[in-house]
Amino acid sequence: MIIIQAKDYDEMSRKAALFIAGQVLLKPTSVLGLATGSTPVGTYKELIRFHKEDGVCFQQVRSVNLDEYYGLPASHEQSYRHFMQVNLFDHIDILPGNTHVPDGLTRDPQAYGKEYDEMIASLGGIDLQLLGIGSNGHIAFNEPGRYFTAPTRLVDLNKNTIGDNARFFESEDEVPRQAISMGMKSILGAKRILILASSANKAEAVRDMLEGPIDPMVPASILQLHPNVTLVADYAALSLIS
Ligand code: GLP
């Protein structure tokens, strides 16, 4: 894993955006795997700037998102579809039909998960997957557990994640308890992975991902097996690395 250090969140965001813009310039038809959460917001802002000021073009890009809260319609303010529209898609020239975010209202999550993975495969797989990391080491909504799970599927969110994400909702009670999450197969199938981490509350997860054993209790540790992963992290998130 290549580690790129940044002094703070803004520098992490600029470096991550350069990485993604480079991917799109080198391959304008890239399939980008995209993430939500607070971490990539600054990266998306920089990408919008690259589009507006430097003409980086997303017209041929296809995107697939990692996850969506189960039970939230796309129109809900806290849905990940809404997040992507507001933080990125509405400000660049990506074609709406080329963006894919899991459907949080699907009635048959099992069949839907299979279709979502097949859709990714039909695009030729993911060229660059952007990831954040949960404070418990989760990636997408693949929570710590007894095994790594391959397919896109319905997952139960754990208490830690519900607590972490409560800041986006009026109260913890309103945080959905389930989500549709891309599984490890499609994530690890990406040709390149860019994972971001910022702030001290990610330091333990970053250390365990990089230096711990490959353990489903730390879902991000499976990235040790991928041949092309770059971590861009600020000093605070890297503070426990030996
Ligand atoms: C969320 C998302 C993840 C994200 C993580 C960290 O629950 N499902 O994709 O990487 O938690 O979020 P944040 O960047 O807000 O810390």
Name a few traits of the molecule.
242 residues; alpha/beta; 7-stranded parallel sheet; 3-stranded antiparallel sheet; 31% helix
What does this structure look like?
The protein is an alpha/beta fold and about 240 residues long. It has one domain (about 1-235): Rossmann fold, CATH 3.40.50.1360. It has seven helices and ten strands. The protein has helices at about 10-25, 40-55, 80-85, 110-120, 160-165, 185-190, 205-210, and strands at about 1-5, 30-35, 60-65, 65-70, 100, 130, 155, 180, 190-195, 230-235. The chain has a seven-stranded parallel β-sheet with strand order 1-10-9-6-2-3-5, covered by helices on one side. Helix 1 packs across helix 2 (about 40-55). The longest helix has 18 residues, at about 10-25. 2-amino-2-deoxy-6-O-phosphono-alpha-D-glucopyranose binds near residues 36, 38, 39, 66 and 132.
Helix-strand sequence = EHEHEEHEHEEHEHEHE
Shape: globular
Tell me about the largest β-sheet.
7 strands, parallel
Q: What is the CATH C-level name?
A: Alpha Beta
CATH topology: Rossmann fold
Our Rg estimate from Cα atoms comes to 17 Å
For the secondary structure, the number of strands is 10
